[in-house]
Design goal:
Low-confidence stretches: none
Order of helices and strands: HEEEEEEHEEEEEEEEEHH
Number of helices: 4
Shape: elongated
Number of strands: 15
Strand content: 25-35%
Radius of gyration: 29 Å
Distance between the termini: 29 Å
Structural class: mainly beta
Length: 290
């Protein structure tokens, strides 16, 4: 936080607080090639005209857009999940949500500053009567639209998440979840497991007598208990002697090698290498809230 803002906070009569918002539009660019965004303010403190702010020269125009912004306060126990509720009587936002897919995953920036720091272009004669227009502000707050909560003829409401909140958020091609691996089992990318059968789908260990020499299942062969075979890219372990049935058709005499997609399943396959290289687990254990 800039020193100017700190000093203003401790004034006996600080100037009016102004809150500005920016909604960043994915894959939409201005004519100059920068990411396009909607800039607006809620008309708090009686301001119902546009506010010019940015680049220390009032470069951008933040339009007055009737809305209710609440839930931005931080607490010791949890990150805020604020909401933005807009007037929808003219169906403006309903139309926009159809085009921008409810704005899910779109970033929202919240800027707090004081009237004292606004550029002179916001005042008569281009002069700020309260002080020098430095455009100093509190640290910008970054949020992501998590869901659309309400949509009717009167209002439309969105819930926001802090960008620091990980569980349930999206990164390119992957959703952040706690104890579920997202790699394809035995795939070259991510998993990389090339060993013999390890566990069934419940995580129960499989005992395979030939883990290093597994061949494709053959209808001319008779298999003994513990024998491992392949059917396409799937592995199976025989559970009874004198077995001639096809693994995909006989779930009693054959058990499929399946990773349960949790840390225990990953450890069952890579426990020898874990002390040196760690586990290639495709989940995010660190996202679990403490």
């Amino acid at each position: 936080m800039k020193e100017q803002v700190q000093r203003e906070l401790f004034e006996m009569q600080p100037s009016t607080l102004i809150v500005l918002y920016e909604l960043l539009l994915k894959d939409v660019q201005d004519t100059n090639g920068t990411q396009k965004r909607y800039r607006f303010h809620a008309g708090e403190n009686g301001f119902n005209q546009s506010i010019k702010y940015g680049k220390a020269q009032g470069k951008y125009e933040y339009f007055h857009m009737p809305c209710k912004a609440e839930g931005f306060d931080f607490s010791v126990d949890s990150l805020p999940r604020p909401t933005l509720t807009f007037d929808n009587t003219d169906s403006f936002f309903s139309l926009k949500t159809r085009y921008f897919k409810d704005f899910i995953g779109y970033e929202v920036i919240r800027i707090k500053t004081f009237v004292k720091f606004l550029h002179g272009s916001n005042f008569p004669n281009n002069t700020n009567p309260f002080g020098t227009p430095s455009e100093a502000s509190f640290p910008k707050e970054h949020y992501v639209i998590n869901s659309k909560q309400v949509e009717n003829q009167d209002v439309i409401s969105f819930e926001l998440n802090s960008k620091l909140e990980r569980e349930g958020n999206i990164v390119p091609a992957r959703k952040i979840v706690y104890n579920t691996c997202q790699w394809k089992y035995r795939s070259e990318q991510g998993c990389g497991y090339k060993g013999g059968p390890a566990t069934d789908k419940a995580g129960k260990p499989l005992s395979c007598s030939n883990p290093l020499s597994i061949q494709d299942w053959s209808k001319t062969e008779t298999y003994s208990e513990g024998a491992g075979v392949k059917v396409g890219d799937q592995y199976y372990v025989c559970q009874a002697n004198n077995t001639t049935t096809h693994p995909e058709d006989d779930k009693i005499r054959w058990t499929q090698d399946v990773c349960p997609k949790n840390i225990a399943g990953c450890r069952a396959r890579f426990k020898t290498f874990e002390p040196i290289y760690g586990l290639p687990f495709g989940g995010f254990p660190g996202s679990w809230p403490k």
